[in-house]
User: What shape does this take?
Amino acid sequence: MRIRPLAALAAGAALALSISPAGAAAPSGTPVTIGAILSISGPFAPLGEPERNALQVAERDINATGGIAGHPLKIVIMDDEGKPDVSSQLATQLVSQHVIGIIGGTLTANTQAAYRVAEAAQVPEIFMTPTAQLWETKRGIAPYLFQSVPRNELETEKLSLFAKNRLGAKKIAVLYDENPYGQIGHKLLAARAKQDGLSVVAEEQYPTTASDLTPQLLKVQQSGADTVFLWGASEAPAIAARQIRQLKLKVHIVGATGILSQNFIRVAGPDAEGVYSDTDLNTTSPDAVEEHFIGAYRNEFKTPPNNFASFAWDAAHLFQFAAQANGGKLDGPSIVKAWETMRPYHGTTAFFKFTDKDHNGIAIDSLHMTEVKSGAWAVIKE
Assistant: This one.
């Protein structure tokens, strides 16, 4: 079984904690409800759809391994259409239904909107974007907000060093979405690249729904960049990749995890070949925990899961883990305490080790680089 290096010493205990015993008693009694607020429709549906799919499979998996504190689990999945105001409204509905937790959002602004409601009700929320600033605020740690995704700072370090050491990059350009995800990622990537000795020669913003990035790419062409980073999650990065090839720019293309989907390959077509990104779920050489998830997802949807599906799967199972760790207590403060005092949990995305000061708990060795080869994402041996 492949073991992530940093977590090797804890692997045995963590694996035991990541999969409930096959002989666990069947859950019974009143169902325990978790709410999920995802962007299943709208421009970010390529992220929200696999998250929804993974939660459907996770519900069955959790119920097959004892449920939540011996009770059957019901995950109520709602679509915020990519709109923060809708996220807030849905969070209010879920709190009124007495959910023990919320999974979501798919997007940074939507997570923030839902969390205002969740925190007031002391309902734990696990979100699925890399923006750690949502819980690591200027006012301190957001007490009920946790993250099932590697934080932006880990991703920018991984991507910058890959570009420098593997691709030989010297001058980079950053194309980034105007939304919070793009703006924060751009800022951190530019700072990290400079720290690694790379020159940032172009920084170009685009609208989330952009269908033509020629003006931005012409500036990139004039800048002399040898590597272009794409930081976004709508279809715009795929359009950018296609137009980079059309303009015959001789550059490497490296994208944030927001591009890591089959939809990117579908939109970019043959021009997706050779594009790099980072992944947490290793579908090329999975370990036992990843293989279990990949098999369950593939059996249901006839396609392998991606990163976004992995984030949601782990979020659901972290609630099961909390109930196992704290003796079945399902109130918000007890779930939070279970996470903040946890032993390492072996998920499909990473080994998680939350603390009261770290609501992410993921190390950089959980990240892998991947490349589009023959129309599919393939993990690169490093």
